[in-house]
Write a structure and sequence with these properties.
3-stranded antiparallel sheet; 6-stranded parallel sheet; CoA-Trfase_III_dom_1_sf; CoA-transferase_III_domain; CoA-transferase activity; Acetyl-CoA:oxalate CoA-transferase
């Protein structure tokens, strides 16, 4: 079965998370992704463990961090700091449809691997640069780190418990969301640019920045500020504009109640045995509930604390009140719905036997995602790619290896 991006070849000069996430999405969609790595060390995340993928003898093979964003790629070791390595990279780029890179602004120009240099020999190239702050602006030369961008881009100003409560203060998200969202946006941008190329015959340069993405991904929060001029603050697990829409502590565990409209609130109150709350003018409508949240929420919390979470969840679900448990990852992957959706995949691995990974969430009726290969070992495909694409024979490749170019 043909895959959506079959026939598209990507030269992947990215490492760590944002760039590799983008190129892994392209690989999942059928693109041939050639991952260029430093000889001897490779992508930094190969060593960002524990935890590790281990072989049958228990020896570490790769860090789990690396495994998260590199399946379906071909690894080629190439030292682009050396002139001969740069020349080989340019030859590879000339045979590719896409180049993705996340070097500091201007770094690749000195290697002749910047957009202008490659577009001069391949005008159809789609070239995606991923940096912390973009190719322009006063911060362009700064290195970009997800944690810092979460702070600078406003996310941490709305994440964390209220300052006036125990544990209050700014809090980063538990996963590198600026990196991951940048990877998602970048993959979308690359596919859009490929579509444009099909119509016009020309490629283009894509300028992706973590800070841009972080500001954009705040959704209704950033638009709320622009509309009102009011700076939103941290509300912990509560919602800025909807009440009750937060975490509550039951008699034995935490649960989420996500009441989205007034009729749901009335049913919620009925389950709690507190019908009078739904009729109270202070709580009957969402704007009033938001206004009086400090009085309402403690009453709801007190009632929910009287019974176990499982009992509340059963009763709330039966009343069609949006709710849910808070699970750890062991519970997530044991969930029957997660299993039914096939969110855990197992891919054969030459050294580990197999590797457990998370499926791509995109579901296509005609061109399903295929998981053809695991994250590659360092330099696993160097000889194969150089022979196939550049016509180098075994002695030529061995000469490059002896000089530490590959």
């Amino acid at each position: 079965m043909q895959r959506i991006l079959e026939g598209i070849r990507v030269l992947d000069l990215t490492r760590v998370l944002a760039g590799p996430t983008a190129t892994q999405i392209l690989a999942d969609l059928g693109a041939e992704v050639i991952k260029i790595e430093r000889p001897g060390t490779g992508d930094d995340t190969r060593r960002w463990g524990p935890p590790w993928l281990r072989d049958d003898a228990g020896r570490p093979i790769e860090a789990a961090y690396y495994l998260a964003a590199n399946r379906g790629k071909r690894s080629v070791t190439l030292d682009i700091a050396k002139p001969e390595g740069q020349a080989l990279a340019r030859e590879l780029a000339a045979k590719c449809d896409v180049v993705a890179e996340n070097f500091k602004v201007g770094d690749l120009k000195r290697y002749g691997l910047d957009y202008a240099s490659l577009a001069a020999v391949n005008p159809r190239i789609v070239y995606c640069s991923i940096t912390g702050f973009g190719q322009t602006g006063p911060y362009a030369d700064r290195p970009g780190y997800d944690f810092i961008v979460q702070g600078m881009g406003g996310l941490m100003s709305i994440t964390g418990e209220r300052d006036d409560l125990p544990g209050g203060g700014p809090q980063k998200v538990g996963v590198a969301v600026s990196d991951l969202f940048t990877g998602l946006y970048s993959a979308n941008a690359i596919v859009a640019a490929l579509f444009h190329r099909e119509r016009t015959g020309t490629g283009q340069h894509i300028d992706m920045a973590l800070l841009d993405v972080q500001v954009a991904m705040l959704g209704n929060m950033n638009t709320s500020y622009l509309a009102s001029g009011e700076i939103p603050g941290r509300l912990g697990n509560a919602h800025q504009s909807i009440v009750p829409y937060q975490v509550f502590k039951s008699a034995d565990d935490y649960l989420i109640v996500a009441v989205g409209n007034d009729s749901q609130f009335a049913r919620f109150c009925e389950v709690l045995g507190e019908r009078a709350l739904a009729a109270d003018p202070r709580y009957a409508t969402n704007p009033e509930r938001v206004k009086h949240r400090d009085a309402l929420v403690p009453m709801l919390a007190s009632k929910l604390a009287t019974r176990p979470a499982a009992e509340w969840l059963e009763r709330l679900e039966a009343a069609d009140v949006p709710c849910g448990p808070i699970r750890n990852l062991e519970q997530v992957f044991a969930d029957p719905h997660v299993i039914a959706r096939g969110l855990e995949i197992r891919v054969p691995h030459a050294k580990a036997g197999e590797v457990r990974l998370v499926a791509n969430p995109m579901r296509f009726s005609a061109t399903p995602v295929a998981y053809d290969s695991p994250p590659p070992t360092l330099g696993e495909h160097t000889d194969q790619v150089l022979a196939e694409l550049l016509g180098l024979d075994a002695p030529a490749i061995e000469s490059l290896r002896k000089r530490a170019i590959v």
